[in-house]
Amino acid sequence: MANRFVEKLCRFVQLSPEEMAALEEATARPRPFGPHRDLIREGDRPGPVLVMLEGWALRYKVLPGGGRQIVAFLMPGDACDLHVNLLAEMDHSIQTITNAQVATIPGEIMEKMMAQPGIARAMYISQLVDEGTLRAWIVSMGRRSSVERIAHLLLELYRRAADVGLAAGDTMALPLSQAVLADAVGMTSVHVNRMLQELRRSGAVTLQRGVLNICNPAALTRLAGFDENYLHRSRRSVFS
Amino acid sequence: MANRFVEKLCRFVQLSPEEMAALEEATARPRPFGPHRDLIREGDRPGPVLVMLEGWALRYKVLPGGGRQIVAFLMPGDACDLHVNLLAEMDHSIQTITNAQVATIPGEIMEKMMAQPGIARAMYISQLVDEGTLRAWIVSMGRRSSVERIAHLLLELYRRAADVGLAAGDTMALPLSQAVLADAVGMTSVHVNRMLQELRRSGAVTLQRGVLNICNPAALTRLAGFDENYLHRSRRSVFS
DNA sequence: CGGAAGATTGAGAGTTCTCAATGCCTGTGG
DNA sequence: CCACAGGCATTGAGAACTCTCAATCTTCCG
To answer: Does a structural domain hold residue B195?
Structure first.
């Protein structure tokens, strides 16, 4: 039974048994981390490639004034940037949100694996998707109202989670406090709270005690102006 | 005399003469484009790698409501995503801003070139920098005030331009209307106008008739909370 | 039961947008 | 060389959105 990382890459590319085995082997011995632990900090020299096997993490940058902006969420199956080791230092930090199991793939192993075409292809696609996601976030921050922005984020997380088997029907575990959501969408936790209430009232989504429930997918998708094209999912929509 | 694309890659990696020659050759026959021409549209099947040799372009997405959000600026020397051809379709569009000369590198040639370690390394670094830039934009949109946001963008563009020889002292040609700036920073052109006035009044920058003048680099950097680390420039700051 | 973290509420202050009118500059045709 | 059209840039004023700053609830745990 493949782990979520392998499972995710398989969605992009048909991997050979040897390739899957190599990926499995490379991530077979994850390390446990508690919540709110920095895995790597801005300014650090990049190390091995990190792979989230269990638990959630986030990428963030802090501003001179002390503010924090989250620039990405990492859920089980997600890997941190291929090739970062080409850079002299990290331009952002990565921190766990929950308890987590993260595997670490040393550069040499990574290099060896990238010689296998399927793996290389899958990793490249995965990176392009991450980039598309960054662009989608910029669009949200720049041109969507706060309700739409939150709706968009929730839908994105739901879709990604569903793809790695983390959603059950229209429900999933979402371990993000309103303060964390606020740092991701560029708002105040107070305002996130009110917008979440609005969404709840509208009957589109519900997010309480760490469980997200997409009550009305169609309405939510319309409201958020959500077009999943940037996730480059090969399969058909989860909802259809 | 190397073109700006080669010049830019050389900033990241020491290329061998053969590598430089290959890059030169691959971009030796650019095509001219007029202003406001889509080079590729969201939904299109990705084609060859594009390289801007002269003129500016932008990446953008349009929303259901009709709004437009710019997610990146391309200036001479910049290339569009390596590997995009792995995706079934573009998740955003690219359009020229000014008259432009853009070269086109077919997949097979690109592949052949990537076999040369220096070129591969430079292209990967370049992609990581683009990604870092996307993250920096997210931070700006989420956590910076509108003046800071504009100041940050102007500084970024100035630094990047300076790196490819497009700045003269503290001055550069910036062919962006206030409406374009607005679509990039997620504001209204009316508000961009007012914030630009504020910057002008403060004596930090000036942007008039297409010329940007960084009057007080230190003050501007402080105001914008600008940390160039995400550009991963190997050389020392232009200002120091 | 006591504490701590996270979720909610209220009210007033600030920021940014909307809408519409006006001003400025440039290239073109007469 | 001048008038005119079109594209930008600028202004004003009121409306809409978000934030700030507390204060109050709830929930989760030891």
So the answer is: yes
Contact status, residue A84 vs residue A90, Cβ threshold 8 Å: yes
B191 CB and strand D closer than 7 A:
no
Give chain C positions with protein CB within 7 A. Answer: 5-11, 15-20, 25-26
A 76-135: CB within 7 Å of strand C: none
Q: B107-127 in b/e burial notation, b at 16+ Cβ within 10 A?
A: eeebeebeebebbbbbbbbbb
Q: Classify each residue of A67-102 as buried b or exposed e, where b means 16 or more C-beta atoms within 10 Å of its C-beta.
A: ebbbbbbbbbbbbbbbbbbbbeebbbbbbbbbebbb
Query: Which of A63, A128, A229 is the closest to B143 by Cβ?
Result: A63
* One domain for residues B79 and B174: no
Which of B65, B54, B58, B22 is CA-nearest to residue B39?
B58
CA separation for the pair B87, A164 (Å, rounded)? 20
Query: Which run of H or of E encompasses B127?
Result: helix B117-143
Indicate if B110 and B221 belong to the same structural domain.
no
**Beta-carbon separation of B138 and A69 below 8 A:** yes
| pLDDT tens, per residue, chain A with 240 residues | 679 999 999 999 999 999 999 999 999 999 999 999 999 999 999 999 999 999 999 999 999 988 999 999 999 999 998 888 899 999 999 999 999 999 999 999 999 999 999 999 999 999 999 999 999 999 999 999 999 999 999 999 999 999 999 999 999 999 999 999 999 999 999 999 999 999 999 999 999 999 999 999 999 999 999 999 999 987 444 444
Residue B84 maps to which CATH number?
A: 2.60.120.10
CA distance B46 to chain A (A): 12
Identify all chain B residues contacting A125, using CB atoms and an 8 Å cutoff. 83, 86-87
Residue A153 belongs to a domain:
yes
State the smallest CA–CA distance between residue B32 and chain A in angstroms. Answer: 27
Pick the residue from chain B with its C-alpha nearest to A132.
Answer: B91
B197 touches strand D (CB under 7 A): yes
DSSP 8-state assignment for residue B112 = H
- B37 domain-assigned: yes
Q: Which domain holds residue A161?
A: 145-231
B69 touches strand C (CB under 7 A): no
List, in sequence order, every residue forming a beta bridge with B173; answer none if it has no partner.
B211
Question: CATH number for the domain including B189?
Answer: 1.10.10.10
Contact A139 B83 (CB under 8 A): no
Provide the CA A75 to C1' D4 distance, Å, integer.
61
User: What is the CA A169 to C1' C14 distance in angstroms?
Assistant: 43
